[in-house]
């Protein structure tokens, strides 16, 4: 099993963190491969560019990343 921390960009500019659990793959009778994956969303968000004064003042509480 391989576990990867990934990020998805949301419509409001934040990044949502989630874990991807890769459990391998299987092949059906026709030869088509199916990947076995599970996801767990962590409900943790990264703020790219803080737009409000409240977000700018609380920088110690949020993680700021560059795109």
Strand and helix map with partners:
Blueprint: E1 2-9, E2 14-27, E3 33-47, H1 53-57
Antiparallel strand pairs: 1-2, 2-3
Q: Would you write up a description of this structure?
A:
With 67 residues, the chain is mainly β. The protein has one domain. Helices cover 7% and strands 55% of the residues. It has 1 helix and 3 strands. It has one helix spanning 53-57; strands at 2-9, 14-27, 33-47. Strands 1-2-3 form a 3-stranded antiparallel beta sheet, with no helix packed on it. The longest helix has 5 residues, at 53-57. The radius of gyration is 17 Å and the shape is elongated. It starts with a strand and ends in a 10-residue tail after the last helix. Residues 6-54 form the Arm DNA-binding domain.
Short description:
The protein is mainly β. The chain contains 1 helix and 3 strands. It has one domain.
What is the count of structural domains? 1
Can you list the strand order of the major beta sheet? Answer: 1-2-3
Tell me the total number of β-strands. Answer: 3
Fraction in helix: under 10%
Helix run count? 1
Structural class call reads mainly beta
- Rough shape? elongated
Uncertain segments are none
Distance between the termini: 29 Å
Average of pLDDT: 82
Element pattern in H and E: EEEH
The largest sheet is:
3 strands, antiparallel
Q: How much of the sequence is in beta strands?
A: over 45%
Radius of gyration, in Å, reads 17 Å
């Amino acid at each position: 099993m391989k576990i990867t921390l990934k990020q998805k960009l949301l419509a409001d500019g934040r990044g949502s963190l989630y874990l991807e659990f890769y459990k391998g793959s299987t092949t059906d009778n026709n030869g088509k491969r199916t990947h076995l994956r599970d996801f767990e969303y962590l409900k943790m968000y990264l703020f790219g560019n803080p737009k409000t004064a409240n977000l700018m003042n609380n920088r110690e509480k949020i993680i700021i990343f560059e795109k």
